[in-house]
Amino acid sequence: MTFRDWPDLIPDRQSPVPLYYQLAAAIRERIRAGALTSGDQLPAERELAERAGISRMTARQALADLARGGDVVARHGVGTFVAEPKLTHDALHLLGFTEEMGRAGGVVHSRVLEQAIIIPPAAIATALDLQDGEETVRIVRLRSAAEIPLLLEMSLVPRARCPGLEHEDLERQSLYAVLELRYGYRPRAARQTIEATVASVFESELLEIAEGTPLLVLEGITTTDRGVPIEWFQAIYRADRVKIVVESQPELQSMATPAPMSVMLT
């Protein structure tokens, strides 16, 4: 489907919503619906402005808004193209990055930045049910898909529960697979928080993004099917390439007095 085949994109000038925002939302909806697919080229600013009956400045704002959201990518001197679909992280089901990408049909590459024995901070030791002075194996990895760095991941695993983990090849193996197959710990559940932040100099260099680019941070504790805390983790995702999926349901109560649902932002 070409751009000229689309329905009219002229924004509603009577709406309090800015014109650029309306246009960006209309294009984004066509991407979500599959009318535009990865690699399709969008019209240049001038054509887009003429098509929508708006100024070039407004068209430029709309394209910039789409680029900030990771829906399109601008290639200098070439044009603006629909971006690759974002990786969907399912926060409802506990999957490692390798398993998650495998389910989506993606090719995973892991680069181990650190694999060392450390004494964890007190708060993490408490969360992992460790005594003072007990050691953990700290594993820091840069995770990529299709040669695009998506995730900077840190895991702290109790050393006494997984002796020798510091020597495992975690560039070619899934951590969760190693925990289950070698040590008998099956990761089953995780209590995690989701927070927005921006990229530091270090993170921007590793993830190949500009300093200050939005990031999503997941942090929490993974427990096994026997309720043993086996991992503290922090996963820093590129917000332009990843989206988080959650599902909320009320607790089972009397239908006459349904339980309220709430979202807490800290």
Structure write-up:
The strands form 3 sheets. A 6-stranded antiparallel sheet has the order 5-6-7-10-9-8. A 3-stranded antiparallel sheet has the order 1-3-2. It has 2 domains: 3-82, Winged helix-like DNA-binding domain superfamily/Winged helix DNA-binding domain (Arc Repressor Mutant, subunit A); 87-245, Chorismate lyase-like (Chorismate lyase). The longest helix is centred in the first third of the chain and has 14 residues, at 19-32. The relative contact order is 0.11. It has 7 helices and 11 strands. Helix 1 crosses helix 3 (56-68) and helix 2 crosses helix 3. It is α+β, with helices and mostly antiparallel strands. The two termini are 43 Å apart.
Summarize the helices and strands and which ones pair or pack.
Elements: H1 19-32, E1 41-42, H2 45-52, H3 56-68, E2 72-75, E3 79-82, E4 87-90, H4 97-103, E5 108-118, H5 122-127, E6 136-145, E7 148-158, H6 175-181, E8 187-198, H7 201-207, E9 214-224, E10 229-238, E11 242-245
Parallel strand pairs: 4-11
Antiparallel strand pairs: 1-3, 2-3, 5-6, 6-7, 7-10, 8-9, 9-10
CATH class of the largest domain: Alpha Beta
- How are strands sequenced across the largest beta sheet? 5-6-7-10-9-8
Give average pLDDT, whole number: 82
Using the CA coordinates, give the radius of gyration: 22 Å
Please identify which CATH superfamily of the largest domain we are dealing with. Chorismate lyase-like
Write the CATH fold name of the largest domain: Chorismate lyase
Largest sheet: 6 strands, antiparallel
Distance between the termini: 43 Å
Number of domains: 2
